[in-house]
Design brief:
Chain B: Its main location: membrane. The complex is a heterodimer of chains A (140) and B (1109). Chain A has 140 residues and is an alpha+beta fold. Chain A has one domain: Beta-Lactamase. Helices cover 44% and strands 26% of the residues of chain A. In chain A, strand 1 and strand 2 form a beta hairpin. In chain A, helix 3 packs across helix 4. With 1109 residues, chain B is α+β, with helices and mostly antiparallel strands. Among the domains of chain B are: 93 residues; 126 residues, Gamma-adaptin ear (GAE) domain (Immunoglobulin-like, Sandwich); 107 residues, TATA-Binding Protein. Chain B has 53 helices and 18 strands. In chain B, helix 16 runs antiparallel to helix 17, helix 17 packs antiparallel against helix 18 and helix 37 crosses helix 45. Classes of the chains: A alpha+beta (140), B alpha+beta (1109). At the A-B interface, strand 2, helix 1, strand 3, helix 2 and helix 3 of A face helix 1, helix 2, helix 3, helix 4 and helix 6 of B.
């Protein structure tokens, strides 16, 4: 099961965070900083999975952006690793132009993919369907 | 393929980049969020960030509560509030506005309202109740987008109690024509099932309908519910197995629309989900398992594409195959598949392969064998996570045979692990293994720690075993298990076991092998006797073995074994072994004596004999130290060459000593010891502190500081790095070291093992002698004995070179009348007198003059009067100075070589006398002196009567060298060769070697305390050890330091309280500093010098000087 999804830049600044298990607001910043430090310290040739406390981190780097997913021990890390890539592909598909600071839209996309720590949709068209509909309505 | 995609995606960050970039600036200039993010990105400090966010929050707060704010603006404000909360700054004022936005906004604004609610609130938040109405309204909306939003938020969070209010509406949606609505309705029901399973019990048939939905998305959503349901009760859903199999078959067969593919792989995450469900259903159920064999085989076959996601599916597939009832054909394929994983050069795959292997070896440990080499490679992998996963795998295949190696590996990892969670987890696992395989684990510790380990570990282990735990039955089992496991160890390969472990084994077998009903004492005897024949078995171990045998030598076979051993060892060079063999033989033949048991420590059975002897005029018994004193006064002859082997038996006594109070002295005695390392490894800062505090610029500071604090400075533990700490912790966890034992219990222990300490307690009497009048006799005795024997052990180990017998003999032969010894070959006296003689020898080196005549008189050729006046041949510039006694170096028919030295402030002057004892002149004489350790400067050659090249009959030539030490060693050896020719004869050579103790090169170094302090910090070579303290009644420290000062020419810089600092130098200008502290009855010394080996060598001489005292 997925515990959280983080998007952070190389400086360790959080760009997006979504928790699927309750974590106190005041503990989140410290946890994120620690998690990011864990992943940033690793070399390219090292495993993309890191043990962290009693769970595991699956991370993937896209240039200056890191996407880190916290998963519980029983999870299939490699499938999560690919899920991250799927997510990025969806973002790529949606944000066709140079963008913007669309925190809300990225969240909406993520909500279509992951709920309650489970993968609920991976079909790109279906992930984007609700958001596209909203956009259409807003435009029209 | 994936690489290509990945490459195209490197462009993504610029799209995605929430970082401020020139390109995006234009477009986002209108976005307030954009400004905020940019502002934050540019900040450098947390403090600035906080200021900025607080300002932002104030501004948001003002605007959200303004009645003029439009919903569009509200949405914008919410996104900024979300951002602030994401950075950890609470924006609780905006929660209610988020709900309002969800209520009143339209389309995107509404969606953002819902999003904000789901991000801000947790499931139990009271404000969530306010959302119920909005959700109700939206669920009934004709706008599908709004229905969709409502269902999304419901499936994320909803107040449990309000489920009935919306449940009918959600159920209705299951029949909605739009697949997305049906899908979201299923997910909402899943959420309800998670938070309130009772509420949805009645609609289980609707789940089935969803499973059979014509839309794959709806079906997929329903699998979440089924996975959950089957996890809780797999029996109830067996009938669905065929459906799941069919679905998987279709998915694998590519029946889904193309857009479900991910990198050409059909719905991979759906496949994974289905495989998980199948493995739950097929577990322990043959018939259900059979239904799925075909599709699993198909899955394995189809997943041949080389992409991460296919491996992710394969992993799940392999897990499934090993979870359900096995089918050999499938297992084979799965095993092969795992091979592809673990052998992959891609590290992520390797990781997953190890994880798969870890899983499957629980069902089939043999599988690990196939991948042995890979596993071993992975154990040394630079990436810790791979290592960690490998240990996890090893943990699963631990059994009685391999537990030792595995525990070792785990401990290794613990030493490098810095992560608390890992440490806790691994320590737990080691502890679990230790519980499962107590003896194997201890065996690991013994086998690995070997002879390097602290002697108290085996001691306390034996103690633990003999004292036992609470229950007698448990104790019996434990001991029996120990006996069994040791017997099997001895039967396999005893020659690989370390000495200490063999000693433990011997003791346990001797003590407890009777517990095993099927084990004949004779069998044990035979096993033990084999140990005696092993080449590498030390005599110390042999004596443990023999003692174990004396406990067992009963009955027919045993007697013959005992007889054999007696025959072999009765002529042993080692007196202890000889004695043990004797005892063994006697006990084995005298069954009455054997059964008698008990030890009369007062030796009352000798009373009759003693009184008879006294009556017959025998001298009354005197304790050894008294005898020694008397003998010292009586100046008796030394017979110690006969007792050279005895110090060895001493060491065996100290090991037999169960109390091991010697930790300190023992540990510092082994120079490669870990304690020493940790001292050295400790940060300099602390050492610096230690010095500074006590010897500050203002002088001594300790008056203001409590004693404990200075004591702490010396203790290395606070210095330890976390990993060392972990190491220590782990050692603690695996070696149950009994800490405090009641004194009585200890005494009982001592008595129980009286056979071991038999010899030890005898010798302790004399060693203890005068120094210890305390009432706790037994205890203190042991301590005294142990520490002194520890010291005698130390000598060879710490210096790497045994003081050669030649050295001793050399001194002995030189010694004149004031020899201190007694005519007996009893162990302790002998070893003491041995030291004493050496000591005297050294002492004489420093202040000699008055001894000289008698010394020469005692020489081998006393009838040669010329010897008497050798000293008169000293070079004139040395004649005024005191010189050492003149030592004969070598001789033949024609020449006698002797040497002496004179200590000058900056060097040592070595003088070699060449006495021509022949009747003709020596011609073409050449003397070469050489030394690896010395710098030899030929000074002068003074020959009284003739030129250098020729020495006339019965006259003396003198060669004079100035030497300084190049490289310190305990004794500096000078090698020389004299070549000469007798008239008409052939050239001849005569070789000699001469040893100069390092002490002859030591000079006092006069320093102030302050200078000492700054020098101390600058020196790198560093040694610590405990020395015997001369127990004077008033001021032991001063007395001890004075002895050192007198004997070794050290300069005592300052003594304050229990600490003193001492300085000396090795000619020329090679300083060595010594810091002494009285601690627990010993003198803890800490030496530092810039010169390698100097502290060690000096320490050796300090030890000897104090022993001799």
């Amino acid at each position: 099961m997925i515990r959280f999804v983080l998007m952070v830049n190389r400086q360790g600044q959080t760009r997006l965070s979504r928790y699927y298990t309750p974590v106190d607001l005041n503990r989140r910043a410290a946890l994120e900083a620690d998690v990011v430090r864990c992943c940033l310290n690793r070399k390219k040739d090292q495993c993309s999975f890191v043990e962290y406390q009693d769970f595991k981190l699956v991370y993937r780097q896209y240039a200056a952006l890191y996407i880190v997913v916290g998963v519980s021990d029983g999870e299939n890390e490699l499938s999560i690793y690919e899920l991250v890539h799927n997510f990025v592909e969806v973002l790529d598909k949606y944000f066709s132009r140079v963008i913007m600071f669309n925190l809300d839209r990225v969240h909406i996309i993520l909500d279509e993919m992951i709920q309650n720590g489970h993968i609920v949709e991976t079909n790109k068209n279906r992930i984007l369907a609700p958001l596209s509909a909203i956009d259409k309505m807003a435009d029209g | 393929m994936s690489d290509v995609v990945e490459k195209t995606l490197t462009a993504l960050p610029s799209l995605l980049s929430l970082d401020s970039q020139p390109g995006s600036a234009k477009l986002s200039s209108t976005s307030k969020l954009g400004n905020l993010i940019r502002g934050i990105t540019e900040l450098t400090s947390k403090h600035e960030e906080e200021k900025l966010i607080q300002r932002e929050l104030t501004s948001i707060k003002d605007q959200v509560s303004s009645p003029n704010t439009s919903m569009r603006q509200m949405k914008e404000l919410m996104v900024r509030a979300i951002y602030c909360e994401m950075l950890g700054y609470e924006a609780s004022f905006s929660y209610i506005h988020a709900i309002k936005l969800a209520q009143q906004g339209s389309v995107l604004d509404k969606r953002v309202g819902y999003l904000a609610v789901s991000l801000f609130l947790n499931e139990s938040h009271e404000l969530l109740l306010l959302l119920v109405n909005t959700v109700l309204k939206d669920l009934q909306s004709t706008n599908l987008i709004e229905v969709c939003m409502a269902l999304t938020v419901v499936s994320q969070m909803f107040p449990k109690d309000m489920i009935p209010a919306i449940l009918p509406l959600v159920e209705d949606k299951l029949n909605h024509p739009k697949e997305i609505i049906r899908r979201k309705a299923v997910l909402a029901l899943y959420k309800f099932y998670l938070i309130a399973p009772n509420q949805v019990q009645h609609i289980h048939n609707k789940f089935r309908k969803a499973l059979c939905d014509k839309d794959p998305g709806v079906m997929t959503a329903s699998l979440h519910i089924y996975l959950q349901l089957i996890k809780e009760n797999s029996e109830g859903y067996k009938d669905l197995t065929a459906s799941f199999v069919t679905i998987l078959k279709q998915v694998v067969g590519g029946k889904l629309p193309m857009d479900f593919n991910y990198h050409s792989v059909p719905a991979p995450w759906l496949q994974i989900q289905l495989l998980r469900i199948l493995s739950l259903l097929g577990k322990n159920d043959q018939s259900t398992s059979e239904i799925m064999y075909e599709v699993l085989d198909e899955s394995l076959r189809r997943a041949e594409m080389n992409h991460n996601i296919t491996y992710a599916i394969l992993y799940e597939c392999v897990k499934c195959i090993y979870t359900i009832q096995p089918k050999s054909e499938l297992l084979e394929k799965a095993a092969k598949c795992i091979g592809n994983f673990v052998l992959s050069p891609k590290i992520n795959l390797k990781y997953l392969g190890l994880k798969a292997l870890t899983y499957v070896v629980q069902q089939d440990p043999k599988l690990a064998l196939q991948h042995q080499m890979t596993i071993i490679e992975c154990l040394d992998h630079p990436d810790l996570i791979i290592k960690r996963e490998t240990l996890e795998l090893l943990f699963r295949i631990t059994n009685g045979q391999n537990v030792t190696v595995i525990v070792e590996k785990m401990l290794d990892f613990l030493r490098i692990s810095k992560d608390d969670y890992t440490t806790i987890d691994l320590v737990g696992k080691v502890a679990e293994l230790a519980e499962k395989y107590p003896f194997e684990t201890m065996n690991t510790v013994f086998s690995l720690g070997g002879d390097m380990m602290q002697p108290d570990i085996p001691n306390s282990f034996l103690k633990l075993l003999s004292e036992g735990f609470d229950s007698d039955e448990e104790d019996r089992k434990l001991r029996l298990f120990a006996v069994d496991s040791y017997v099997s160890l001895l039967q396999s390969e005893p020659n690989k076991l370390p000495q200490r472990f063999l000693q433990v084994i011997s003791w346990v077998l001797g003590e407890y092998s009777h517990l095993s009903a099927e084990l004949e004492p004779a069998t044990v005897m035979t096993l033990l006797s084999k140990l005696l024949d092993l080449k590498h078995t030390s005599s110390e171990t042999k004596s443990w073995v023999l003692m174990a045998m004396t406990k067992l030598c009963e009955g027919g076979v045993a007697i013959s074994v005992a007889q054999d051993i007696y025959e072999t060892h009765s002529s042993s060079m080692d007196t202890v072994l000889r004695q043990r063999a004797q005892e063994l033989q006697h006990l084995s033949q005298d069954s009455e004596l054997y059964l008698m048991g008990g030890v009369d420590s007062s030796l009352s059975f000798l009373d009759g004999f003693v009184s008879e002897a006294l009556a017959a005029g025998a001298a009354p018994y005197k304790p050894p130290h008294q005898r020694q004193e008397e003998l010292a006064q009586a100046k008796a002859l030394s017979l110690e060459p006969y007792s050279l082997s005895l110090p060895i038996s001493m060491s065996s006594c100290s090991i037999a000593d169960r109390q091991s109070p010697t930790l300190m002295s023992m540990s510092s005695g082994l120079s490669g010891d870990s304690t020493d390392l940790s001292h050295k490894g400790g940060s300099t800062t602390l050492k610096l502190d230690g010095v500074k505090r006590v010897w500050g610029r203002e002088g001594y500071l300790a008056q203001r500081e409590p004693v404990e604090e200075t004591a702490q400075v010396e203790v290395p533990s606070p210095l330890r790095s976390p990993s060392q700490q972990a190491e220590a912790d782990s050692t603690q966890s695996q070696t149950p070291t009994p800490t405090v034992t009641p004194e009585l219990e200890q005494d009982k222990q001592q008595l129980a093992s009286s056979l071991f300490v038999g010899l030890g307690s005898q010798s302790s009497v004399c060693l203890m002698g005068k120094s210890d009048p305390t009432p706790q006799r037994f205890r203190r005795k042991a301590q005294g004995r142990a520490s002194s024997s520890g010291a005698s052990e130390k000598t060879p180990t710490s210096l790497g070179s045994t003081p050669s017998p030649v050295d001793n003999l050399l001194c002995n032969s030189l010694l004149d009348s004031n020899l201190v010894s007694e005519p007996t070959n009893q162990t302790p006296q002998a070893s003491q007198s041995l030291d004493t003689t050496n000591g005297n020898c050294h002492e004489e080196l420093t202040d000699v003059k008055e001894n000289n005549p008698s010394l020469i008189h005692n020489n081998e050729e006393p009838d040669k009067p010329k010897d008497l006046c050798l000293s008169s041949h000293l070079p004139t510039e040395l004649s005024g100075l005191s010189h050492s006694e003149i030592t004969p170096l070598c001789s033949n028919q024609s020449v006698n070589l002797s040497a002496c030295h004179v200590q000058k402030e900056d060097s040592l002057q070595l003088v070699i006398f060449i006495f021509n004892s022949s009747d003709s002149a020596l011609q073409q004489m050449q003397l070469q002196v050489d030394s690896g350790e010395l710098k030899v400067n030929y000074c002068l050659s003074l020959i009284t009567d003739s030129p250098v090249e020729e020495v006339r009959s019965h006259s003396v030539a003198v060669c004079h060298y100035s030497v300084t030490v190049k490289r310190p060693s305990v004794h500096v050896e000078v090698l020389g060769m004299l070549s000469y020719q007798l008239p008409g004869g052939t050239p001849q050579t005569i070789q000699f070697s001469h040893k100069l103790p390092l002490t002859t090169f030591i000079r006092p170094l006069t320093l102030s305390t302050e200078e000492y302090g700054s020098m101390w910090l600058a020196f790198s070579q560093d040694t610590k050890q405990n020395l015997t303290l001369i127990n004077d009644d008033q001021d032991p420290l001063t007395t001890t330091l004075n002895v050192l000062k007198k004997k070794l020419q050290l300069h005592v810089v300052e003594i304050i309280g229990v600490e003193g600092i001492v300085a000396c130098q090795l000619v020329q200008d090679q300083p060595c500093l010594m810091h002494c502290r009285v601690h627990a009855g010993t003198l803890a010394v800490w030496l530092r010098s810039p010169v390698p080996d100097l502290p060690d060598c000096l320490l050796y001489h300090c030890q000897r000087a104090l022993q001799e005292h």
